[in-house]
Amino acid sequence: MADDLFKALADPTRRIILDELAEKSGQTLFEICSRLSMRHHLGISRQAVSQHLAVLEGAGLVEARREGRYKFHDLNTAPLRHIAERWPTDDPDPSPPKESTP
């Protein structure tokens, strides 16, 4: 499963789709395509977005649910938590180090 997760995250278009679902969960394929076109100026076909969503679903990052004729896509962050738990840090404060000023 980890290989599928890293493969899914490796593609920049899939990361943009995840960003869009993080901002507004429960989108249809049409909504996702519209947001990719309007907000990110990506000229990508519905078929290509559908294939990206299938990869994200296979990795467990997206869950799809049907309601009537529509299929809604929701972000699932649980697989990302597994990555964070895999390489825990000793530092209890995960904030980036502060830069010193001269």
Integer count of domains: 1
Shape: globular
Count of helical stretches: 5
**Fraction of residues in H or I helices:** 40-55%
Beta content: 5-15%
Query: Which structural category fits the helices and strands?
Result: mainly alpha
CATH class descriptor? Mainly Alpha
Read across the widest sheet, the strand sequence of neighbours is: 1-2
- First and last CA, distance: 47 Å
CATH superfamily: Winged helix-like DNA-binding domain superfamily/Winged helix DNA-binding domain
What is the CATH topology descriptor?
Arc Repressor Mutant, subunit A
Run of helices and strands: HHHHEEH
Under the CATH scheme, the architecture is Orthogonal Bundle
Radius of gyration: 16 Å
Query: Main sheet?
Result: 2 strands, antiparallel
Number of strands: 2
Question: Low-confidence segments, ≥5 residues, pLDDT <50?
Answer: none
User: Kindly state the mean pLDDT as a whole number?
Assistant: 90
Could you explain the architecture of this structure?
The chain is mainly alpha-helical. It has one domain (2-82): Winged helix-like DNA-binding domain superfamily/Winged helix DNA-binding domain (Arc Repressor Mutant, subunit A, Orthogonal Bundle). It has helices at residues 2-10, 12-23, 29-40, 46-58, 78-86, and strands spanning 62-67, 70-75. A hairpin with a 2-residue loop joins strand 1 and strand 2. The mean pLDDT is 90.
